[in-house]
Amino acid sequence: MTEDDNKLVAERRAKLAALRATGGPAFPNDFRRDALANELLLGYGALSDAALEASAVRVKVAGRMMLRRIMGKASFAKLQDSSGQIQIFVQREALGEQPYDDFKGWDVGDILGAEGVLFRTKTGELSVRVEGLRLLVKSLQPLPDKWHGLADTEARYRQRYVDLIMNEDSRAVFQKRTALVRFLRDMLDARGFLEVETPMMQPIPGGAVARPFVTHHNALGIDMYLRIAPELYLKRLVVGGLERVYEINRNFRNEGLSTRHNPEFTMLELYQAYADYRDLMDLVEQMLRGAAEAVLGTLQFDSQGQHHDLRDAFERVTVEDLILRCNPGLERARLRDVPYLRAACEARGIPWKPGDGAGKLQIEIFEKTGEHTLVQPTFVYAYPAEVSPLSRANDLDPFLTDRFEFFVGGRELANGFSELNDAEDQAARFRAQVERKDAGDEEAMFYDADYIRALEYGMPPTAGLGIGIDRLAMLLTGSPSIRDVLLFPQMRPE
RNA sequence: GGGCCGUUAGCUCAGCUGGUAGAGCAGUUGACUCUUAAUCAAUUGGUCGUAGGUUCGAUCCCUACACGGCCCA
After folding, report:
1. How sure is the predictor about A5, in pLDDT bands with cuts at 50, 70 and 90?
2. What proportion of chain A, given as a percentage, has pLDDT over 90?
3. Helix, strand, or coil here: A328?
4. ipTM
5. In contact, A309 and A299? CB cutoff 8 Å
6. Which one, of A110, A109, A128, lies nearest residue A120 by Cα?
7. What does the alpha-carbon distance between residue A176 and residue A461 come to, in Å, rounded to a whole number?
């Protein structure tokens, strides 16, 4: 017994000690169930009492005891398994005096195996009339309040196992998340995409603008980086002739925590040869509709107090048009004029840095004044080249790239573009990033010589897309925080 | 990084102007063979986040820190 045991735990330890003293296995693993709670409710819940009586269905169920009501020589209890809960009816007459007394000493939270016949109680609830009952696992820790459950957010994140036991809503969120990922895989597989796995540990982190985590490889004697994106590896595969590839996996970014950011998060990245960013906008639109249909069974839903109807076509608007829409005082003709944009930033309390060009300043203004207004699904496209070092420049307007970001509920959900496959242009943009890095920008990119070499072999015209799976799961489950859709969100150590 | 709010029994929460802490559930004991947050009776359980300070006296006021939440950057 440890010193931090409270009285409740001590009592349960004493019960376990008594159980061990009887000589049998305290944690038996020879009980085999043959039914799940929800299967029984669905399969027999609608049968009439007479039909149920006549068929005398024998079942073995197992699960955690979530409720217990003892009324002298008979008791009711609720067993919870992965499918749901079913009531059992325990009678001393049917079980025998000693086993019934044993049962009365068990606790809510213990895991039981029960065998008996299905019947319906006087109040109409399908239940198991127990003929045999075993304690399979003695639980030592008391569960939270049976009615209020576990409400404390910190405890829900730190002890997710308790949250999952107590909160059906929480279980549903993670089931939906899994349904979402399964849908995305099915959809892409059906379109001829190949799912691949590329390095998580990279000697040169690339594919995004972010600070990486650094670790060290002892045998090689080099620092390595946890990837901030798989992008450059996936595009190497396109060079290699894998013309449609995707990866759904973790990225790591050494940044702060918030309701929208976790240091490790899940991204879907995909690349499709002989396609451009417009094709991918179409793909995202179909993907979001399909995901809502697969996860929620509808295209109309509420999330975070906002109603979404995905039947409507998603709006498409350029960065500059959106800036003008949200800042009526600005003039289109001067939107690429650095002094003008600096003044516009200052008038809005937006900080800027001396090295920022017109493209970067535009994006600062867009993020502060426009992003939060994008509640309904919206594609914002024509991003400045300055902030898009991996995107293909626009053929008509070299200030811009063929790139979009996708927003719902005021949050960025996806980022896609026609890929830059001109090796010499890419090398020049890497050099520009290195200059920023040398000037002290820790988020600027490294020069990846092997990636340039790969492009020199020739990458087919390609479009690529990244979707934040966590944020998409937040949207579809109505979760206000990324922590609600991560089983084990990052927390400061206790 | 900044601002605001929170931290009291295993859980959910009260606690007035500073006078050494309460409820419900859970637990324990007893009653009860159809309950639905079962009911009834009795009862155990607290370093009031941590460390200082003010005070005759601090859960309460002040300071710092820790952890969490929300908003901002």
Report:
1. low
2. 85
3. coil
4. 0.93
5. yes
6. A128
7. 35
Query: How many Å from the CA of A8 to C1' of B69?
Result: 29
Q: Are A336 and A400 in contact (CB under 8 A)?
A: no
The pLDDT, as a whole number, for residue A2 is: 40
Nearest nucleic acid nucleotide to A158, CA to C1' distance? B68
Who wins on pLDDT, A256 or A335? A335
Q: How would residue A1 be classed by pLDDT, with cut points 50, 70 and 90?
A: very low
User: What pTM value is reported for the model?
Assistant: 0.93
Cα A30 to Cα A25: distance, rounded to the nearest angstrom: 10
Ramachandran region, residue A33 (left: φ > 0; alpha: ψ -120 to 50; beta: rest): beta
Give me the phi and psi of A191, to 5 degrees please.
-95, 10
d(CA A447, CA A449): 6
Residue A267, amino acid: M
Q: Which nucleotides of B are covered by protein (CB under 7 A)?
A: 1, 9-13, 24-28, 31-39, 44-45, 66-73
pLDDT exceeds cutoff 80 at A164: yes
Nearest nt to A484, CA vs C1'? B69
CA-to-CA distance for A235 and A229, rounded, in angstroms? 12
Q: Nearest nt (C1') to A367 (CA)?
A: B73
Whether the per-residue pLDDT at A6 is higher than 80: the answer is yes
Token pair 């859709």: residue: A485
